Amino acid sequence: MTRTWQISGVTDAARARIATARLAAAYGVPALERTRLTTALSAHLRQCLTKGGTWLLTLEITAAAAGEGLLHAVVTPAADAGDDTVPPWRTTVGCPEAPATAAGDVVAEDPEVLAEALLSADEDTAEVLEELAAQEELVAFHREELHQTNQGVLALHADLDAAWRAQREAFAAEHTAREEAESARRRLTFLADASAALTSSLNQDEIVRLLPDLLVPEYAGSVDVWLFEGDDRHRPSAHPAAAVRAARTGRPQYAADRPGGLPGVDDRPPSALDPARPLLCVPLPTRRTPLGVLTLSPPGESWDPDDAVMLIELTRRASIAIDNARRFEHNRDIAETLQRALLTDLPTTPGLHLAARYLPATHGLNIGGDWYDAFRQPDGSLITVIGDVTGHGLHAAVMMSQLRTALRAYAVDGGSPGQLLTRLHVFLHHLQPDLYATAVIARFHPEDPTLTWAAAGHPPPVLRTPDGQVRTLDAKPGAMLGIPLQQEIDDHTVRLSPGSTLALYTDGLVERRAQGIDPGIERLAGALGSFRSVELDEDLDGSADRLLYPLLSDSERDDDVCLLLCHIHSGAAELTRTPAGVAAF
Predict the structure, then answer these.
(1) Would you say 386 and 504 are in contact if contact means Cβ atoms under 8 Å apart?
(2) Which of 34, 92, 107, 377 is the most exposed place for a label (fewest CB within 10 A)?
(3) pTM score of the predicted model
């Protein structure tokens, strides 16, 4: 169906609009769509009337699928307008249903029809307004939803921001905790290593020299160690006043222009000796009175409190190490003095020269075990002995003196070297069941060119013959003296000639931990064989010194060393000749 209206004025436009609205309503076009159609048509017709002339409105209903139709509205200029440059205006709406009556039969000029059209327009407008109100409610609902969503998003952002700040703070706290743990581990490691270094030495001067090497530059800029001699902490000195106060009170002192806030440390005014430099003065404590004061300047402007606590603990351990070193040196001096006092003066015998050397250990408290002796028996023979008591220190020195005295007492009754060692074995076993000794006894007799000797668990004597050949007197020895075993120690003999030299020694001369004792004995034999007979005849003491040097050049000297050289002068008559010649010995 097609309908056309000619429009040349406002009344024509209104009638055309009413007809369009009624036709759209008849074909079931929804009110909202009708309103849009008529509103758009009215706006376009107003523009057309403004331009002037005559215009044509054509409405056409066409069929569509499923019984529905389409309403096409077209506005074009009339043929007599003469303006064919204006493009036609077109719009299309769907028609859901066919009209029950012919919509085109209604005459729009009837006043009742106009009134009804006006009411219908009001109804459409009301329906549109209702739709708009519903849309406004929907918009308001969605706006509220959006507001709530925005609030939720803002809250979520706030929560995320708070979570991020909390995570950042947690990371910062974890980083700080790790740094503090690493610093604590570093301090504990340093304290353990430094303590091991300090306690590994028993030399007071070495410990004092070690302290600056340990602390500078990581924990201190400078280190000064003030050790008391007697009670000189009460005497005037050039030490800082804080150090003097630390010595008198036994409490650490911190001298600076402002408080240090160090735990367990008293704050003092800056030192008059160096006001610009902070000083930490820590006493070196012992069970009785302080040994001295350790004065430190900081590596930077000041100390970390934890570093100060570590330094105070290190000072305490250094004090223990120094105190132990002093006690050790005191006991060592006593033992060495006692042992040297007990070592005998060698007798003078025509034709037989003796030279002895005793060297205390340079490491550890190893004084007191080694000894030598030489004395005459009632029958005129000369007894030479060298031995080593197990253990070290004063106890070993005292035991050595008792063995020396017992041997001399037993020798008064006579007896061979083996018999004397057997009696010493019984004596030591009953006197000190938990202490043992080794020894070698050699006897020279003026009426016999034969050397008689016996050994009990001791390194074998070394004999140099006049032609420079060296042999080890390693005949079967007895066991150590004092062990829980009954034994009879055998004598051994060897014939001597003028120019012969017998070397008695302790294991400190020949034994090395990495090599054992046999290579050392071979080195001793080689060194003794390198001497010329004239050297031994003219300077046996110097020969003893020259013999020790190459043998001890690689030694750590952690044990005593004893050496006893017995040399028959080359000018003496051979022992195998007449008794007159023997008398010259």
Answers:
(1) yes
(2) 107
(3) 0.53
